Amino acid sequence: MSSRFLRFFLLAVVLVTVPSFVYLSQRRNGLVRDPTTGEWYAADSYQHGNLPAQKEQGHGPIVSNVMKGFSNLWNMAYEPVTKFPAHTTEPSSDVKTASVAEEPPVEGAYAAHMTNATAKAELGRATWHFLHTMTLRFPEQPTKQQSEDLRTFFYMFSKLYPCGDCAAHFQKLLEERPPQVLSRHNAAMWLCGAHNAVNERLGKPEFDCRLLNSTYDCGCGPETAATDLQAVRPEEATGIANIMPIS
C-alpha cells in the first residue's frame, strides 16, 4: 500500500514539475514573431549554431525546442570564458599622446630655461617694478638685521626666480655687483645700476636713475625715498670697488 502511494506521489510530482519547468523555460527563452508571416518562432532557434527554426503552431511552443533552448542557456552559463582579450598595460599603437617639450634645466637655478619670449618679457617688467618699489620703500637707516635680510633676499631671489636663464644671469651679476643694503638710498641706486647692466646686455636703452622716484612712485606717502639719486654714497657702501658710479 505504501509503495503504491509513493509511486503515485512521485508521478504527481513529475506531472506538476515538468510543465512548470517547460513554462518557465519558455518565459525565459521567449518567442520571436516574424513580421512578414506573423508566425511565432522559438528565440533559441536564432542562436548561433542552431538548426533552422521550427514554426510554432497554435498550441504553444514545441517542447523539444524549449528544452533545447534551456540546455543552450545552461551550457552558456557554465561555459568557460575564453574569448575575452588578454589585459595589457601597454598603450595601443593607435592612441597618440601629445608630447610636451621639456625646457632645459639651468645650473644654479631652481627653474628651467624659459623659452616663451613674451612670458619672459612680461615677467621681467613686473619683477623690476616690484624690486624698485621695494628698495625705494626700504628703511633709510635700516638695522643690521634689516640690511642682512635684504641681502639674503637678493641671493635667494637669484635662485628662485622662475626664469632659469634669467636667474643664472642675475647670479653672475651679484658676483660682480654685491648688493648694497646699508641704506635705502644705496639699495635703490645699486638696483638701478644692476637694472642698467641688464639693459646693456639686452641691448636696451639706459634708464635715468634720477627718475626712480617718479617712475616707481607707489603712492604710499612721504616714506618713499626722495633724496638725491645721483650716486651711491661711499660712506654707506660695502664692496665699493664693485659698484659703478651712476651720474
From TrEMBL:
- Which reaction is catalysed here? 2 R'C(R)SH + O2 = R'C(R)S-S(R)CR' + H2O2
Pfam families in the cross-refs: Evr1_Alr
What organism, scientifically named, is this protein from?
Malassezia psittaci
Q: Which cofactor does it need?
A: FAD
One Gene Ontology cellular component term attached to this UniProt record is:
mitochondrion
InterPro entries xrefs: ALR/ERV (IPR039799), ERV/ALR_sulphydryl_oxid_sf (IPR036774), ERV/ALR_sulphydryl_oxidase (IPR017905)
Name this protein carries in UniProt:
Sulfhydryl oxidase
Q: Which UniProt key words apply to this protein?
A: Disulfide bond, FAD, Flavoprotein, Oxidoreductase, Signal
> Which is one GO molecular function term here?
flavin adenine dinucleotide binding
Residue ranges constituting the ERV/ALR sulfhydryl oxidase domain according to the UniProt record: 116-216
List the signal peptide residues: 1-24
The catalytic activity of this protein is classed by the Enzyme Commission as: 1.8.3.2
